[in-house]
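1st attempt posting a full record on here, be nice pls
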Amino acid sequence: MPGIPRKTRVVGVIASENDLEGALGEAGKFIDLCELRIDILEPCSAGMRDLAGALPIPRVVTVRDPAEGGLNHLSEARRSELFDEWFTLSDYIDLELKNLARFSRLAGRAQAAGKQIIVSLHDFDRTPSLDELATALDKSKGIPSRIFKIACKVTCWNDVKVLSEFLEKHQEAPIAVMGMGPLGKLSRILFAGLGSELAYVSLGQAVAPGQWPADKFRLLLSELERQ
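the predicted structure (as tokens):
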């Protein structure tokens, strides 16, 4: 028998100084965590770092690989430097599944410091099969206490069904599921209802197709939680 779905935590994506100011202001009341997209924010001023340090909620530091949607064509060496620069401000570190071996030093350092790691996988072209998702989840188990995050394109109801089944079959694992594309917004509400660990929302301009504005998503999520 399926267990009771976990309560989804809402992550506000910070990709500009306006987003950062919003998280410190009115928009901050709609989110539980924030994601600092350092690959987009780079270069960051000292003032922006100070603002980020003033955020009263946990911070996810992400320096996204260009092959999985990262901006500014950052090299692996530069991404590593930026992770180091932002390490003390991070509560969570987001690392792509395919880069775990390359960033093993960072992963080990984060675990030793008590920071949680989000192991992420992005597919902007399609929804992986259930077998592919299960294999990816299994590969992520090398990181204790990780959150496995899958964000992929959903173009038909069967895509949504595959991701829903994946969530339901692995309720024992901390999994975050995000849909992008034509059915992205619809799927994200559904996945939150099914217990996706995290749901990413925009604080300004969306950085991924399918992201809800923070206030609208929180309102819909509140309706689900009343049921």
